[in-house]
Please model this.
Amino acid sequence: MNLEILISKLQPLGISGREAEVYIAMLKNSALTASEIAKITSVSINKIYEVLQNLIKKKMCTENYLNGVKLFRCIEPKIAFKNIFSVYEEDLARKKNMYKEVEENLLDLYSNKKNSTSPLDYIEVVSDIGQASDRFLNIQANAVKEILFFSKPPYTVKNLEANLDKVESACNKNVKVKSIYESGFGESRDTIENLIKIVELYQNAGEEVRICRQLPIKLVIFDESITILSLLDNVTFNSELTTMIVHHPLFSLSQKTLFEVYWNQAMTLDDYKKEENISLSRT
Model:
């Protein structure tokens, strides 16, 4: 195997490039002095002792004297790697013991923090679109009972199809998924047909769907406990959405009540098709 490739394979195990090079060099020789190792590797004589001491600490080589000369020998790889992992385990055990010593103090600090919790600690505010999308997908994937959507335009088949598999997976796990889609007023035939295509895709995936002319907000409710709202920025008046994630069951239940009001007033997909055919035929 190529030497550089072999060295790169050793580095994720906590062995530096220099240490790997020196160890491999020693594998090919029975015993070497530090200066001899420096000559057959790229490690300078000034650094070679530091590297050798690191290998000794990791139990990958030994040092002995012969006729007053210090010699270094590698340890057989099978044993060396057992030694390495033994060193890592010892280090982990040491750190665990260190944590236990301060655990009580840390818990006291956490307890004091809980006693002075801000009333807004249950609200996340996310302005980055990518981060908001990641949080939404993570919460959606962990829903176990129910997901309720207020879906507002603009709709693109590409964006909504990206979440289609996630909705279908939730439905297959017996999670009830219900969505109300905002259709708007006086939309073009292309816009209407695009909305119908999207709604049919989700209905076929197992989602219960309704359509209404106007929704108050972009909203998702998960398991009557987490609510995600997307709001237009009214401070700087730009078109960016700010996402709020509210971890509060009472708030979620109040929003669910709002959802049910709109659900009962909304049209089924068939009713929407009939209504649009009538309105389009009049134009």
User: Anything to note?
Assistant: The mean pLDDT is 86. Residues 77-115 form the longest helix (39 residues).
